[in-house]
From TrEMBL:
GO terms for biological process: carbohydrate metabolic process; defense response. It is a lipid-anchor; GPI-anchor. Residues 1-18 form the signal peptide. One of its GO terms (cellular component) is plasmodesma. PROSITE patterns: GLYCOSYL_HYDROL_F17 (PS00587). Residues 360-445 form the X8 domain. The lineage of its organism: Eukaryota, Viridiplantae, Streptophyta, Embryophyta, Tracheophyta. This is glucan endo-1,3-beta-D-glucosidase. PANTHER family: GLUCAN ENDO-1,3-BETA-GLUCOSIDASE BG1-RELATED-RELATED. The keyword Mitochondrion does not apply. The keyword Iron does not apply. It is found in: Cell membrane. It catalyses: Hydrolysis of (1->3)-beta-D-glucosidic linkages in (1->3)-beta-D-glucans. It comes from the Eukaryota.
């Protein structure tokens, strides 16, 4: 099983739309000086078991390379094409004919993103945005594809004002003339409300008011959780608070059954001197926790158990993007297909990781009952036929002498003996697959020393992969003032509880 970057790996969860599974997907930007050829991009996706991708355009080379892979594809109408499509039904029909009908069903196109953050990045185009949505949808109807392919438009979380408490959130009133008909369109077509959610920017703009742990999904003590006084719902992370604010804001306009789809979320792995929290560790923590949060069906406080499908931003580091250093370092991989870091994903089903060397391990779950762990350890070293001699006193894996550490060694050995079959890493619920190497000191776990993976080489750039990935479509920095205000108030209120 290719170690997925989990990235995106899409495993099932229950979605706000009852008949669809929630998923983790990945955005594919192309601002690289040495952009891999589409066939190389797809090879990486397949090796990582990535099942959902979002393109910022409708690049023909990518759509051809994705054909017959089963990967579900969201394509985009770039902002620079929005005006023509929003003013002409015929132009929209031609776009659908060239970029959808010509490739479907060989290429499994499931979604069309019309523009990107149009209401804030191109406010003058706002009046024709809903027309563009309708015209694209009408073209799909004419091709009998409207049930298979949904149409929506990604929006920034900054359009939500007064977002804390989430139960009192509402949209910028100046946008309601667009949002009301847009939401009506989404509801009538069974489409999702697309939202870009960046806790990194909320945290950065809070000037220290938002705790880093709150932005990274790290566990918080009960007295530091954010409480919505109107609903008494407890919020333990920025992501959930933003999602619920969106649900409540839609409800304030009398729309209560439109699911939220997060089209972008992530954390940069490197930044300049003004971005000290753009680090490998924090990027790993955020994306690993985000993936676990989605695939574990956690949901939000308002909608527990209903996971919010999310596309991680993004597949590659993009060295030619303008702006601060962080803008170039949101990727999970470099241009050669080598992982920037290995995601730490446990307790998220048979999820793998973005490590093409296929390094997965079986470890004791944190907080597992000691008696159950001991019983499982005894079984593994007995009937399970694991060689546990390395756990004897004086041997390399004796220290630390804890049941959990010894169990992890035995569990992992059994898992490897059985070909890394996910069912071989259960032990009645006290074990889970992880990409974190449990080796320590002289105690080296089976397979841990073989780290020489074969990565994809990038030698042939796509001729048209750059055409519509312009910075205006994906410029960061516009996020979070209102969301940040929400969290600032939220955290402040929690701290006095």
């Amino acid at each position: 099983m290719a170690l997925l970057l989990l990235l995106l790996l899409v495993i099932s969860a229950s979605s706000a739309s009852a008949d669809e599974d929630a998923f983790i997907g990945v955005n594919i930007g192309t601002d690289l000086s040495d952009m891999p050829h589409p066939t190389q991009v797809v090879a990486l996706l397949k090796s990582q078991q990535i099942k959902h991708v979002r393109l910022y355009n409708a690049d023909r080379g990518m759509l051809l390379a994705l054909a017959n892979t089963g990967i579900k594809v969201a394509i985009s109408v770039p902002n620079e094409q929005l005006l023509g499509i929003g003013q002409s039904n015929a132009t929209a029909a031609n776009w659908v004919s060239q970029n959808v009908v010509a490739h479907y069903p060989s290429t499994n196109i499931t979604t069309i993103c019309v523009g990107s953050e149009v209401l804030t990045s191109l406010p003058n185009a706002a009046p024709i945005l809903v027309n563009a949505l309708r015209f694209i949808h009408s073209a799909l109807v004419a091709s009998n594809l409207d049930r298979q392919i949904k149409v929506s438009t990604p929006l920034p979380s900054s359009i939500i004002l007064d977002p804390f408490p989430p139960s009192q959130a509402f949209f910028n009133h100046s946008l309601n003339r667009v949002l009301v008909p847009m939401l009506s369109f989404l509801q009538s077509t069974g489409s999702s409300f697309m939202l870009n959610v960046y806790p990194y920017y909320d945290y950065m703009q809070s000037n220290g008011v938002i705790p880093l742990d709150y932005a990274l999904f790290k566990p918080l003590p009960a007295n530091r959780e954010v409480v919505d006084a109107n609903t008494l719902l407890h919020y333990t992370n920025v992501f959930d608070a933003v999602i619920d604010a969106a649900y409540f804001a839609m409800a304030s306009l009398n729309f209560t059954n439109i699911p939220v789809l997060v089209t972008e979320s992530g954390w940069p792995s490197k930044g300049d001197s003004k971005e000290p929290d753009a680090t490998l560790e924090n990027a790993n923590t955020y994306n690993s926790n985000l993936i676990r949060h989605v695939l574990n069906h956690t949901g939000t406080p308002k909608h527990p158990g209903i996971a919010v499908s999310t596309y991680i931003y993004e597949l590659y580091n993009e060295d030619t993007r303008p702006g601060p250093l962080s803008e170039k370092n949101w990727g999970l991989f470099d241009a050669n297909g080598a992982p920037i870091y290995v995601l730490h994903i446990t307790d998220a089903g048979s999820v793998l990781a973005n490590d093409t060397t296929n390094q997965t391990y079986c470890a004791a779950k944190d907080g597992a009952d000691v008696k159950l762990l001991q019983a499982a350890l005894d079984w593994a070293c007995g009937p399970g036929k694991v060689d546990c001699s390395q756990l004897a006193q004086g041997q390399p894996c004796y220290e630390p002498d804890t049941v959990a550490e010894h169990a992890t060694y035995a569990f992992d050995a059994y898992y490897k003996m059985n070909g890394k079959d996910p069912e071989a890493c259960d032990f009645k619920g006290v074990a889970a697959i992880t990409t974190s190497n449990p080796s320590h000191g002289s105690c080296v776990f089976l397979g841990s020393s073989d780290r020489n993976g074969t990565f994809l080489n990038s030698t042939a750039p796509s001729a048209d992969s750059k055409s519509s990935n312009s910075p205006i479509n994906r410029l960061h920095g516009n996020y979070g003032f209102s969301t940040c205000l929400m969290i600032m108030i939220a955290v402040a209120s929690a701290l006095v509880l």
